[in-house]
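Task: fold both queries, return tokens.
Query 1:
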Amino acid sequence: MQTMYNGILGLDKTEALKMAEVVINEELDINEIVNQSMSPAMDEVGKRFQSGEMFLPELQKAADVFSAAMDVIRPKLLETKSDFQPKGNVVIGTVKGDLHSIGKDLVATMLKVAGFKVTNLGVDLATFTYLEEAEKVNADVIALSALLTTTMPAQIEVIEALDSQGVRDKYKVIVGGAPVDQEWAGKIGADAYGKDAAQAVELVEKLCL
């Protein structure tokens, strides 16, 4: 467990993959490895990023190492019906007319680091794309990013579409982006507003309780 922890925290994909193979081949307790080694390593990565000890490229690398190791052990997890579950299921994207992705991708990465299942839909998304994908993956939260004042109304369109389809109560909606603020979130009926990636993760955790 310590070697896996160090592999993820040290951004060493080769080591993490090697340990994942050991877990499978030696039939170790996968649930224990995930919950007491891999997840704590990602928690520590998140803490170091927020404190400035790690930076965005390292955060993204850690998420990549974690995901690669999980890809190896996931079939066995499903086979053993492990009780490991993500904290929640999030669909995230940048709204229609907006091509900005860096902030949205950072939030998506940090949510993965924090233990959420994340479907990153991309940018310039049609309103009903969110609804279709949220339904497809059984999402808990829909996260809407807008980096331009001209695209902020597209966030309203998504919430109105949820209302019109009678599924508004099924999903929590969090909004963010440079021109967005708490007043706007309240005005359009969003469940939460995240001013930055760290706060967005905290709020999504609360929304998924």
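Query 1 returned. Query 2:
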Amino acid sequence: MVKRLISILFVSIFFISCDTDNSVSNTEVKNIQQEIDRVCDSIIANNVLPGMLVGVWDDTKGLAYLKGHGVSDLITKAPVTEDMLFRIGSNTKSFVITVILQLVDEKKLTLEDKLEKFLPDFPKADKITIRMLCDMSSGIHNYTETDYFEEKFFSEPMKKWTPEEMFDVASKNDFYFEPGEGLYYSNSNTAILGYIVQELTIQPLYQVLKTRLFDKYNLTNTYFPTDNKFPKSNFIRGYMNYTDSSKYNIDVSEGHDPSWAWAAGANISNIYDVKKWVEMLIDGGMISDSLQQKRFIGKLAPSGTITYGLGIFNFTGTDMWGHNGGLDGYTSVMMRSITKEQTIVIFYNIQGVVKPEDLYFRIYDIIN
């Protein structure tokens, strides 16, 4: 149970889409907004979720919905506001893998390069490719799903994790399958990619992300933190309860050093930056067009409900691609249509039984 809560979130859910006319009146847009309000308020009223921040944009309909529901702080009862910072968890993977693809464009590596080029002593390094690390098909064990990690996570919350320690933990556990022969969502993959970025650029990962992505694309409220503190005081507080799943009332906003998540999930951002990011991520422009198309070629999960590409995923049966994220106190999802001008971003300030994907599917149904 604890492992499920502390592992970076990855969710697969069935969904059936329906098509509607994209030409709508102002009255119909208002009705859509009211229906989104109703669903959001219902989720807040019927769950232990303290608060959420929801953004829904459909340019063809003239729909721009951005609203907080519930509270950002259980003590002060402060509302959730649009400009607040948030820990976006595994959405960080899409940033790190974008840098990897930029380095591929720059001929500093290829998707078919073997891991042995960078970590020659890692098990099966001669069989694992960069592509497998990007699309979760390497089979490498997830370091955050080990007894060692769980013990350290709770006994040493401010522990500074190093990439080498993550690799050591992963390498001492069995592969889920032979490299390239399956799909398993493992944070170890992106930790290794973060290490490779540092090796190729001869810079710390936080500086590479800042220079190549945050600064270049004017993501002024996105950060790769190096300690447990938020960079600004205006942030949504995250809540957990490790012993009573009916409460989720313990503030864990700054309870752990984010080095445990590192390249797999440490980023902090706000909803404006996340909207901008997922639209660039899916629409293209940060990497070559040919490589951008390869992002959408991936592995189908055993459940059949998602396809994981190169740092992005798709819910089967929909035209939306993006990512989700979760770590203690925070869960989120960011999705962008590849055929329509639609974007959905959702933040929840808990990690537990209620998931933002559930709301995402309901909103997708409403706007389509």
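Both queries returned. Flag for query 2: Residues 2-367 form a domain with the Beta-lactamase fold (CATH 3.40.710.10).
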